[in-house]
Amino acid sequence: MGDYKVIAIEKKGHVAWLWLNNPDKLNVMGKPFWTDFPLAVRELADDPEVWVVVVAAKGRAFSAGLDLKTMGSISAGAEGMLAGRDKLLEEIMHLQEAFTMIEDCPKPFIAAVHGFCIGGGLDLMATCDIRLASADAVISLREARMAIVADLGSLQRLPAIIGKGHLRELAFTGKDIDAARAKEIQLLNEVYPDQNALYAAADKLAGEIANNSPLVVQGIKRILKFGEGKSVKDALQFVATWNSSFLVSEDLIEAFQAFAQKRPAEFKGR
Q1: Cα angle value 203/192/99 (rounded, 5°)
Q2: 201 with 225, same domain?
Q3: What is the pLDDT of residue 83?
Q4: Which whole number is the average pLDDT over 241-262?
Q5: DSSP secondary structure, 171-218, as one string
């Protein structure tokens, strides 16, 4: 397991909890975060015993977003020169890739959000497959209020989640919304009364997913990702090809045997 400064990983069976672990600074996303986070995601992606990942945070907030005090140095000194702009472009794309890794990983990620979830926190939340929150969550696409165009994924991912109108409202105003409003616009799957209830629900949901064959769950995520922007015909062709390659497995045999024997299946991911 990696030696992380602002990330912690906790594994429970086939479920891993990826903790944002910089509570004294409200889990802001500074340079240590951008070093630790992609390494942690890669560790979990490469671990065959991890089938589901829950992303949560220590302390009073999920994340207060980008650490402007330290990350502001990215653009400082550019002075409008082309070399400085090229460097900034490369840095932005590097940060984007850290969150895109979640999207590219076939394992499902569940965001369990509490407290402030601002800017980069929302970008992280948006790339997860399922989003849960406690009632105290405060969510904001706040970049417009900081004279920044959000560039880590919310503008690209949220239209498919909450629709164009709701996204434009959040992006143009930079306003805060509470968990109830976030659920109303389908940004959240569910809201729970407090943090303990949130984590219990996330753990239960992750366990329900992990009870299924990881070959199938990961196949579903890949198929859904492929289908984005494709025609129904092309998406159906892809899933037919996928199942012709992966349908016959030890897990499929186990599923039939468990059904016949009236017992829970014990999948191995083979």
Answers
A1: 60
A2: no
A3: 63
A4: 80
A5: HHH--EEEHHHHHHTTS-SEEESSHHHHHHHHHHHHHHHHTS-HHHHH
pLDDT at 75 over 70: no
| Residues 141, 123 share a domain | yes
Pairing of strands 52-57, 7-12: unpaired
pLDDT given at position 162: 97
Q: Mapping DSSP to helix (H, G, I), strand (E, B) and coil, where does residue 249 land?
A: coil
What value does the mean pLDDT take over residues 18-47? 96
Name the pTM for this structure.
0.91
178 inside domain: yes
Same domain assignment for residues 230 and 131? no
List, as one string, the DSSP characters of 116-133.
EEETHHHHHHHHSSEEEE
What are 117's strand-pairing partners? Answer: 63, 139
CB < 8 Å & 24+ apart, contacts of 99-105: 99/123, 99/124, 99/127, 99/152, 99/153, 100/127, 100/153, 101/38, 101/41, 101/42, 101/45, 102/41, 102/127, 102/128, 103/127, 103/157, 103/225, 105/41, 105/44, 105/45
Structural domain of residue 218, as residue ranges? 214-260
Q: What CA–CA distance (Å, rounded) separates 51 from 44?
A: 9
**Token pair recorded at residue 2:** 């990696």
Considering only CA atoms, give the Rg of the chain: 20
Whether residue 183 sits in one domain with residue 159: yes
Q: Please identify which residue in the block is written with the tokens 């064959």.
A: 213
196 is a domain residue: yes
Q: How far apart are the first and last CA of the chain?
A: 24
